[in-house]
Amino acid sequence: MTGHTPRLRETLTRLPAYAAGRPPSGQSDLTPYKLSSNENPHPPLPGVLEAIATAAASTNRYPDPSASALVDALAERYDVPRDHIALGTGSVGLLQQVVQISAGPGDEVMFAWRSFEAYPIMTIISGATPVRVPLRADETHDLDAMAEAITERTRLIFICTPNNPTGTVVGQAELDRFLDRVPGDVLVIIDEAYVEFGRDPDAAEGIETYRNRPNVAVLRTFSKAYGLAALRVGFAIAHPEVARGLRQTAVPFGVSTIAQAAAIASLRAEEALLARVDTLVVERTRVEAALADQGWRVPPSQANFVWLRFGDRTADFLTACEGVNLAVRPYGEEGVRITIGEVEANDRFLAVVREFAPEPDAVDEG
Questions:
Q1: Radius of gyration in angstroms for the set of CA atoms belonging to the chain, rounded to a whole number
Q2: Nearest CA among 309, 304, 351, 299 for reference residue 326
Q3: What residue range is the signal peptide (predicted)?
Q4: H or E segment at 266?
Q5: Which of the listed CATH numbers 3.40.50.1260, 3.90.1150.10, 3.40.50.300, 3.40.190.10 matches domain 19-41+268-353?
Q6: Which residues pair with 219 in a beta bridge?
């Protein structure tokens, strides 16, 4: 036996690691709260646990590889043809497939930055080049700058709205202007993982936008508003050629029987879903108002989280949160994302962050 090890791709040395939200550190006897992963604090919707229990009885069998019943339910819910739908292991699974079908070595994949951290990871894995276009000072997409950054090598553009981690949205009018400037052979993905939490009447509507633009597709997930984060099921709505490519690159049997059953049951519980989301939006509004009263300039969030910039005080803020058994999500010293959770969790966060509030009339960096 020689001392050699398998030769792996050089790309791995340049690959940023995906940093999942960590659980609370347990430094306190207080009830732990995890506000670091944008999870829904509510239990599954009515009928979902029963559907999961029924589906679990057949776990010795492979799932329906085409998930026909879920595709039918989604086609009816969104009034789209069945062959315009592709399923995946959460929207992030579909995100990886999108890059696989559109970009490779020598190609460019564009997205705003900061935005969803999986974008550069999946791009680099494919061998393509990530192109990061900085957000505006107000934490929104700079679509004019993104349009100017398009080259003959651009193959794929991600638009995350509401944007993770800043919570800001792209307006429909500005999206339309941007898309008018994008070449028709460049695929544009509107990533709407948090769209159910949006209340801005001027925000872009991904599915309506896709209907008349063959190079536009939409990603959505059951992980956030629907509360199925552990089951990993998302879907894409795209025109047939793109949807077919996504199905071709899907992991066989990737969406389990349990996930399919839970997603269908969740779609049937739309009234309860809307009520649940409304409670989280009310709580988000309360948290944002409290932060404003403390002196913070908070980007108007249309998601289930808020975004604050602490700069060189980030480590101290994280330590303070850990000291009260609270987990939040830092992005280096760029900012901290805090999920809207249970009322008690939000109150505890507000008590901690008050100690870091900017001085009155000071120049605020976040």
A1: 21
A2: 351
A3: none
A4: helix 257-268
A5: 3.90.1150.10
A6: 191, 236
Q: CB 334: neighbour CB atoms within 10 A?
A: 15
The residue with tokens 């879907």 is 235
Residues in the chain, total: 366
Q: Which residues contact 197 (CB under 8 A, 6 or more apart)?
A: 162, 224, 225, 277, 280, 281, 284, 302, 303, 304
Segment 320-331, tens digit of pLDDT: 999 999 999 999
Give the pair of three-digit tokens for residue 12.
């791995």
Terminal alpha carbon distance of the chain: 57
Instruction: Work out the angle between the directed axes of helices 257-268 and 270-294 (0-180°, nearest 10).
Output: 80
In contact, 228 and 258? CB cutoff 8 Å: no
Specify which residues 335 forms β-bridges with: 331
Thinking of the domain 56-267, which architecture would CATH place it in?
Answer: 3-Layer(aba) Sandwich (3.40)
- Give pLDDT tens digits for 130-165: 999 999 999 999 999 999 999 999 999 999 999 999
User: What is the C-alpha separation between 116 and 120, in angstroms, rounded?
Assistant: 9
The pairs formed by 236-240 with CB atoms below 8 angstroms and a separation of 24 or more are 236/85, 236/86, 236/87, 236/88, 236/91, 236/94, 236/98, 237/74, 237/78, 237/80, 237/84, 237/85, 237/206, 237/207, 237/210, 238/84, 238/86, 238/210, 239/84, 239/210, 239/214, 240/81, 240/83, 240/84
Q: How many CA atoms lie within 13 A of 337 on its CB side?
A: 27
> For position 14, what pLDDT does the model report?
79
Q: Would strands 33-34 and 326-327 be described as parallel, antiparallel, or unpaired?
A: parallel
279-303 pLDDT, tens per residue? 999 999 999 999 999 999 999 999 9
- pTM, 2 dp: 0.92
- Cα–Cα distances (Å) from 290 to 95, 153, 295, 306, in that order, read 35, 46, 9, 12
